[in-house]
Amino acid sequence: MTLTLDPSRDLVLDRLLAAPPALVWRCWTEPELICKWFCPKPWFVSQAVVDLRPGGRFFTLMNGPDGEVVPNEGSFLEMVPLQKLVFTDVFGADYTPVDVPESGAGLSFAAILTFAAEGTGTRYRAVARHRNSADAQMHETMGFQAGWGAAATQLEELAQGL
């Protein structure tokens, strides 16, 4: 299936990572590995839950340098082993609706991640699909490209060392 993008609501990060798809996949699907790369430093993930099935829980507990704690509850929607992961923060485990946190951190989007072999590396594409252009703009202003880009660099470095 080819994904038709809507530039008013979809944010895209597209990178060639110098690691094979199997290792990039592991970094996305093994909780202990997610904790090592998932958010840009000095932030870090202290807890991750990956129930890799449609309706399975995808949870990260992000921690900031000044004691900030940001829980991110989500659910997997689709997965194609070694090729594709789709998750959302609109639902938790078993598609239970998630309340938007009072902090405003909840952006209510779906992430569509693809991993394709390209040479000896992986064409890594992350699409953050938002409900509307205002939410996409807020995510962009919060630093989508810089944040997801830094995390992708950390992902690549971790995958190279596996």
Give a concise summary.
This protein has 162 residues and is of the alpha+beta class. It has helices at 21-29, 31-37, 133-141, 144-160; strands at residues 10-17, 44-50, 57-63, 69-80, 84-88, 109-118, 121-130.
Largest sheet: number of strands, sense, barrel closure = 7 strands, antiparallel
What series of H and E elements makes up the topology? EHHEEEEEEHH
CATH superfamily: START domain
Overall pLDDT, averaged?
A: 93
Task: Give the uncertain stretches in residue-range form.
Answer: none
The termini sit apart by 31 Å
Describe the structure.
It is a single chain. This protein has 162 residues and is α+β, with helices and mostly antiparallel strands. The chain has one domain: START domain (Alpha-D-Glucose-1,6-Bisphosphate, Chain A, domain 4, 2-Layer Sandwich), CATH 3.30.530. Helix content is 26%, strand content 36%. The chain has a seven-stranded antiparallel sheet. It starts with 9 loop residues before the first strand and ends with a helix.
Notable characteristics:
162 residues, alpha+beta, 7-stranded antiparallel β-sheet, 26% helix, globular
What is the strand and helix layout of this fold?
Layout: E1 10-17, H1 21-29, H2 31-37, E2 44-50, E3 57-63, E4 69-80, E5 84-88, E6 109-118, E7 121-130, H3 133-141, H4 144-160
